[in-house]
Structures are given as structure tokens and as C-alpha cells.
Design goal:
Blueprint (H helix, E strand, L loop, with lengths): L23 H40 L3 H18 L7 E3 L4 H11 L1 H20 L11 H23 L8 H13 L4 H15 L11 H15 L27 H27 L9 H17 L5 E3 L1 H9 L6 H16 L1 H4 L4 H15 L2 H9 L3 H13 L2 H21 L1 E7 L5 E9 L4 H9 L6 E11 L1 H16 L3 E6 L4 H6 L20 H11 L15 H27 L5 E6 L6 H4 L7 E6 L14 H12 L4 E7 L3 H8 L7 H6 L3 H8 L16 H17 L3 H8 L4 E8 L4 E5 L6 E3 L7
Parallel strand pairs: 4-5, 5-6, 7-8, 7-9, 9-10
Antiparallel strand pairs: 1-2, 3-4, 10-11, 11-12
Helix pairs in contact: 1-2, 1-3, 1-8, 1-11, 1-12, 1-14, 2-10, 2-12, 3-4, 4-9, 4-10, 5-6, 5-14, 5-16, 5-17, 7-8, 7-14, 9-10, 9-11, 16-17, 18-19, 27-28
């Protein structure tokens, strides 16, 4: 059939709505945005503000920075990153993930120099964002990121536990572990009570019904502060100057080796960038709004860090805890995160006296819980399932017992080595099948690293046997080919027989002909589940050298036996679970598919269906004898069973191009006394419909008529749909709205499917039909 006569689907274009124009439409959009802000974003911003204040103070305390620096960063992160960011619902501020880094910088360079390093790190982030490498930061293994955060969590928890117990944190985890027993048994002051109350509330509060909507950090710090005031406890408290603006510390150039300063700048920039981008990706999964623009988000984070550093604030990142709170509180736009920054600024300027009442041990208790939660058992289980736990453990231990940068580098090294191992790893499975000989199945990439294991497996095979090497190999280097080919030649010289069968590619056979190829991503052959026997079986014979032999599953060289053998070996294990389920619960197909017996029409292929999906009836010409025709019961029985017992929802009659039955009907080529002639009598109504001048124009598809044979095929489809309506069960199901009839046409040469209009016989490309 000439495909140029069949209409192609119109080109589909995706357009973006124009922005609202000035005038009434623009005013309406503005009012709608205002309502959204007041209804959703304003309440959410208050919730985030209540979470941000205690966390910002606690992170500043743990970093060894002025406490005001934490609040400055909360303001800058909320307003600057909120206005410019590419992730509208992400909340930016000081993060626990940078606490260890900042504490080390403060100890080494002092706070003013640390602010300058923050400013420089922001400039690096700005350059990275403007050069559009935001997504490249996601190339870092998540196992390394989670291991880094877990290590930071351990460091924070161990150091702040000493503050809760009324002592001072040491400069390393080992030192904190060494001094912890003495701290536990030593003298404790009121700080222990404050810290214990804080930790207890943080753990219990989220589990209480109906009150968990109030942020746990706010409740814990407020309760501990109120208790310390009521009981007049003598505990160290937050220090803020009477005039907060006078307490700003501005950046100064750090003194020290230039290389060390550069390493510090890039460390802050990379860690802050990765944490922000991962947080943005995680927040995207929690809402249905616009997706994050990671390059824009990275640019905004750079501007925010430059601003925070210039004002003497802590480095900022996108923070998953505050961002998740923002989404859960119902935020819809970036107005929420901006307003939360405004509330923090107002709180610092006008309620500084309230902040001075907060005990430091309460903030330490908050950080202990945060640190413990950074060591996530859920992440460990997930990484264990993905076999990434060694990367996680290496990073965690490196951060805890050496330093953050070394720990991350060690984690990256382990991740790269693990990836190389997986890329170059091959699996071997040898099996003795008795009289059929040995089978060695090889999967993966065969490179020099796998040669030792390959040779060991080959040497396990006894001499003078028949061996089938089944290679599922996506790459084979010269060393692996040499080892495999040398063993094969030697084995056959000693009286054995080796047959090599390659499934996904032909690395071995091409190498034997001197053309091995040098790329992993070579075109693969057609999958055997839809390629004809003549393709993959003949291809297999052609690609084997003359001295090779193709093993046969039986003495009979019948392609069907080869196909069955292929099914048993490869397809049966995959399909067996589905068939076992169908065998247990019985068939429940939703479609009756009536089509021709033509070998080129494969219903499961053209409908992408599997076992249990289609109840099929196939016959010469896809005919459906009328219900009152007593000469055939087979098709009628199938129709009645499908509609009455299986209760299918759709009956499809599928004709096809170049139909032999329609050729015989047109040419009268069938012997009058043959079974074919008797069967084709059921198609006489189709021939009458075809010759009816009233219907002939309706069988056109603009701009030209289809060939005569194809027009008859279409008329035949329409006639069989009419014949189906002669069955009482079909008519009743249609009247009740639980069954529909569909005409379909398959163009074999173009591998395209069309719907056939039951009234006009016009064709509609399936791409033009909307999915239900």
C-alpha cells in the first residue's frame, strides 16, 4: 500500500502563554497573586520564621561565630536568595552542613576573615551559576553527600553534647570522646536540666497529635527558656548588643598561606553549592509547582553568600528542613521565604531582649538532635540496597576522624573505584547439562581485570566435552579476547567442541575476523522477542566463522525449535511470574481482538501487550459471520464468551494492508468447492458494500483514492463491525454503555496503525486520536 495516500498527523506545537497585559486582565492577575500570598504564603512564612530563629542561633553558636551572624544570614538568605533563586519554595539560611567547616575557619583565621572567605565563596558560586554548571554539581555521588552530612552530624552532636552537660567542646571528635566519661560523671550545673528538657521536647513533640503543626524547635527552646527564667537558673545565655546593627562584624582579608585560603574558599563554595542543589531537587519532589532552575538557584546562592559575607554573616545554603517546613505549611510562591527573612530582621531589631533570655544549652540541645538526625538510618538502608554503603562509611569516618575535605576526597575515591569495578566487572555462571554438555554464561564487560576469573571458570570445564559459551557482553578488550580465543583453540585441539553464541553484540566474532571495534556503545541487533526467526537465526549463522558450529536444541533444524529453545532459556524466566499469577487468578482481558491469520500481523506486538491482555480471534480475512448464520459456530462462540463471560469492554476488528483473503475475494481465485471459498462467502456483504456507489466516496482519504484492494479491506472492517451488532449480547452491552466496537487498520509496510470510522470507513492516524 502506498503510504503517501494516508494522511500524516499534523505537527504539534507547544506554546507558552503570553504574560498578562496591562489593564483589567493584569489587575485581575495581580489580585489573584495577592490573595495567594495572604492566604498561603503569609501563614507559611510565620511558621518558617519560628523554625529559623532557634536554628540560626544554634548553628552560629556551634560554629564559634557571633550569634548575630546566624540571624544576619537568615535575613539575607530569606530575602536575597528568595527574590533571586530558581527554586521558589526553597528556604535559604545558615546550615548545619557547614558548621564544621566554619568552626575550623574561625579557629584558624578568626571571624572577620571567615566572613571574607564567605564573600569570596559566594563569588565562586556566582561564576559557577552564570557559566551554567549547576547540574554538574549533582554529579557528586549522593553517597558522598550523605556520608559528609552524617560525619558533620556526628561532629556537631559530640561537641554540643559537652555544652548540654555544662562543659566546653573540644577541638576534635577524638578529644570529645576522650573527655566525655569525665564530663558525664563530673559536676553538672543547671545547663544539664535546660538541655535535657530541650532534647526531650524535640523528640516527643512531633509525636503528639494535633499539636505537631507547631514547630518543635520553637516549642523546645521557648519551654526551656521559660523554665530557666521562672526558676532563675544561672546559665550562660545568648549575647546580643543593645543596638544589633552596631554588632555587625565586617570582613577582613585573611592572613596566611594563599593556597590555604583558596582551598577554604572553594571548600565553602562547593559544599554550599552541592547542599543547596540537592535540597532544591528534594524540595521539587514535595510539591507540584514550577520545577527548580538549578543554574539560577546557584547564582542566587552566590549573591546571597556575597551579601552575607559583606555583612558579617555565616555562609548560607538551601536548607531541606526549613524548605520542607515551608512546603508543608502550604507556601505557594517565593513570597513566603522572602517574608520569613523580613520577620527575622524585625525580630532582631525590635525583640533583641527576648533573644538574650535563651540559654546556650537549649540551643546546644537543638543541635545535638539535628546532628543525630543527620545520621539517617533510612539513607543507610537505601545505600545498602544500592551497594553504595562503603562510599558512605568511608566519607563519614573520614569527616569524623580526619577532616571534612579529606573525608569527602576519600569518599569520592572509593566511589570512583566502585564505579570502575562495576563498569569492568563480568559475571560467570558455568553449568553441567549432562548429555547436552557444559554452558558458560558470561555477562557484563570483559576487560583485562576480569581475565583471571574468566580463565579460572574455563579451566573448571572438563576436557573433551561440548561447550556453549553464551556471551551477554557489551565490551570485550584485546586481553579478554586473547584469553578466550586461546582457550577455545586449545580446548578444541584436545578433542572438545566449543560453540560461541553472542546475544547482545558480536565482539568475539568480529575480533576473530580482525575487526573488533573500539566503542562500548555499538548498535545492538534487534531484540529477539520481536525480530523474525529469519533475522536473528540467519544472522547468527552468517556471523560465525566457517570453523564454528551453531548448537541446535534438537536434531531437527527447524527455526521454530530454535525459537522455543530461545524462549526457554531467556524469555521464560522473565515472563514466568506473570503467567503464574494469571494461572492462579484466571484470565481477565479487557479486549477482544479479531484480526487476520496473516503471519505478518502480530497482535501483541502492534498493541504492546502481554499475556492476559488480549482475547484473540484470528481467521482468514478477520471475518465475523452474522449471528443468524448457522454455517460457523467458532467465531460466534468466541464473541459470546468474550462479551458474556469475560465481560470485555472493547471489541476490535483489525484489518491490514495486502490482505490475501481480500485479493481472493476480488479476483475470485478460490476454488468453488474449497474450504476457502466456503469461508469467504461470509465476506460477500463486504464486497457488496465496496461496490455500493453511495459508500465509495466515503472510503476516500484526501487527496487521492486508496488502491482498490485497500478500499476493500476497509469496507470489510466496517462490515464486520456491522455483523458484530447482530449478536444480542453485543447489542445489549453496547446499549448499556459497557462495550464499544472499534475498527482498526494495520499498514504492514509502514508499521502504522489507523482507526477506521465505522460509518464512513475513513482512516485516522492513531497519533491524532486523544488517549482516554
Amino acid at each position: 500500500m502506498s503510504t503517501r495516500n494516508i494522511p500524516r498527523p499534523r505537527e504539534q506545537r507547544h506554546t507558552t502563554a503570553d504574560p498578562p497585559r496591562a489593564g483589567s486582565a493584569g489587575n485581575g492577575a495581580g489580585l489573584a497573586r495577592l490573595r495567594t500570598v495572604l492566604r498561603y504564603d503569609l501563614p507559611a512564612s510565620l511558621v518558617v520564621f519560628l523554625v529559623a530563629v532557634p536554628l540560626s542561633l544554634g548553628i552560629a553558636a556551634a560554629s564559634g561565630a557571633p550569634l548575630l551572624a546566624g540571624l544576619v544570614s537568615a535575613v539575607v538568605g530569606g530575602i536575597v536568595a528568595g527574590l533571586l533563586g530558581g527554586a521558589p519554595l526553597q528556604v535559604t539560611g545558615p546550615a548545619a552542613g557547614l558548621t564544621v567547616i566554619v568552626a575550623g575557619l574561625v579557629a584558624q583565621y578568626g571571624w572577620p576573615a571567615t566572613a571574607a572567605i564567605t564573600l569570596a565563596a559566594g563569588a565562586v558560586q556566582l561564576v559557577l551559576g552564570l557559566t551554567r554548571v549547576g547540574r554538574a554539581a549533582l554529579s557528586l555521588s549522593p553517597a558522598v553527600v550523605h556520608g559528609m552530612l552524617a560525619g558533620i552530624g556526628v561532629v556537631i552532636a559530640m561537641s554540643q553534647l559537652h555544652v548540654v552537660l555544662g562543659g566546653e567542646p573540644q577541638d576534635s571528635v577524638l578529644a570529645n570522646l576522650r573527655d566525655l566519661p569525665a564530663q558525664l560523671v563530673g559536676h553538672h550545673d543547671a545547663a544539664v536540666l535546660v538541655g535535657a528538657v530541650t532534647i526531650g521536647l524535640l523528640v516527643v513533640w512531633p509525636r503528639l497529635p494535633r499539636v505537631s503543626a507547631v514547630p518543635a524547635p520553637l516549642v523546645a527552646v521557648s519551654a526551656a527558656t521559660a523554665m530557666s527564667v521562672v526558676l532563675s537558673l544561672d546559665v550562660p545565655r545568648v549575647f546580643l548588643p543593645d543596638d544589633p546593627l552596631s554588632g555587625l562584624v565586617f570582613p577582613e582579608l585573611p592572613s596566611g598561606p594563599v593556597l590555604g585560603v583558596m582551598v577554604a574558599v572553594f571548600t565553602v563554595a562547593v559544599v554550599a553549592s552541592v547542599e543547596s542543589l540537592l535540597s532544591a531537587v528534594a524540595v521539587d519532589k514535595k510539591h507540584n509547582g514550577p520545577r527548580a532552575d538549578l543554574d539560577r538557584e546557584l547564582t542566587a546562592q552566590g549573591v546571597a553568600n556575597m551579601t552575607a559575607g559583606a555583612l558579617g554573616g555565616l555562609p548560607v545554603t538551601g536548607v531541606i528542613v526549613r524548605s520542607s517546613t515551608n512546603v508543608a505549611a502550604g507556601a505557594r510562591t517565593r513570597a513566603s521565604t522572602v517574608m520569613h527573612g523580613v520577620w527575622v530582621a524585625l525580630f532582631v531589631l525590635f525583640l533583641a531582649g527576648v533573644v538574650r533570655l535563651i540559654p546556650l544549652s537549649a540551643l546546644a540541645g537543638v543541635l545535638v538532635v539535628i546532628g543525630v538526625r543527620l545520621v539517617s538510618l533510612a539513607h543507610m538502608r537505601l545505600l545498602w540496597r544500592h551497594r553504595e554503603l562503603p562510599v558512605y562509611a568511608t566519607t563519614l569516618l573520614g569527616v569524623v576522624f580526619i577532616d571534612l575535605l579529606t573525608g569527602v576526597l576519600l569518599g569520592v575515591v572509593v566511589a570512583v573505584l566502585l564505579a570502575l569495578y562495576r563498569l569492568t566487572h563480568a559475571t560467570f555462571h558455568a553449568e553441567d547439562r549432562g548429555a547436552d554438555g557444559w554452558v558458560l554464561v558470561v555477562r557484563g564487560s570483559l576487560v583485562f581485570l576480569s581475565v583471571g576469573r574468566l580463565v579460572r571458570e574455563l579451566r573448571r570445564i572438563p576436557e573433551c566435552r561440548r561447550v556453549l559459551l553464551e556471551l551477554h557482553v557489551d565490551f570485550m578488550d584485546h586481553a579478554a579476547f586473547d584469553a578466550l580465543h586461546d582457550w577455545r583453540m586449545g580446548y578444541e585441539r584436545r578433542g572438545g567442541r566449543v560453540d560461541v553464541e553472542e546475544v547482545h553484540d558480536t565482539w568475539y566474532h568480529r575480533a576473530t575476523r580482525g575487526n573488533p571495534g573500539n566503542r562500548r556503545s555499538l548498535p545492538n541487533p534487534l531484540p529477539r522477542w520481536f525480530a523474525p526467526w529469519s533475522h536473528w537465526q540467519q544472522r547468527q549463522v552468517e556471523e560465525v566463522p566457517a570453523d564454528d558450529h551453531i548448537p541446535l536444541p534438537s536434531a531437527d533444524d527447524n527455526p521454530m525449535w530454535r525459537g522455543i529453545h530461545e524462549f526457554e532459556r531467556r524469555s521464560a524466566p522473565l515472563v514466568r511470574p506473570f503467567l503464574a499469577e494469571l494461572a492462579a487468578k484466571g484470565q481477565q482481558p479487557a479486549q477482544l481482538f479479531i484480526t487476520c491469520a496473516d503471519s505478518r500481523v502480530v497482535p501483541n506486538l502492534i498493541t504492546t501487550s502481554g499475556p492476559g491482555d488480549l482475547f484473540c480471534v484470528r481467521n482468514v480475512g478477520n471475518l465475523v459471520p452474522r449471528a443468524d448464520d448457522a454455517t460457523d459456530d467458532s467465531v460466534g462462540a468466541a464473541v459470546e464468551y468474550a462479551v458474556g463471560v469475560l465481560e470485555v469492554r472493547t471489541v476490535v476488528v483489525c484489518g491490514h494492508s495486502d490482505c490475501g483473503a481480500m485479493k481472493a475475494l476480488l479476483g475470485g481465485g478460490a476454488n468453488a468447492n474449497s474450504h476457502l471459498a466456503g469461508w469467504l462467502r461470509h465476506a460477500e456483504a463486504s464486497l457488496i458494500r465496496f461496490h455500493d456507489d453511495a459508500l465509495r466516496p466515503l472510503a476516500k482519504v484526501a487527496p487521492h483514492d486508496l488502491p482498490v484492494l485497500e478500499r476493500l479491506c476497509l469496507a470489510n472492517v466496517v462490515q464486520q463491525l456491522d455483523n458484530l451488532r447482530t449478536y444480542p449480547g453485543v447489542r445489549m452491552a453496547i446499549d448499556q454503555g459497557r462495550l464499544r466496537l472499534v475498527g482498526m487498520y494495520f499498514d504492514i509496510s509502514a508499521a502504522r496503525i489507523y482507526l477506521v470510522d465505522a460509518d464512513t470507513a475513513r482512516l485516522s492516524p492513531i497519533q491524532d486520536v486523544a488517549l482516554p
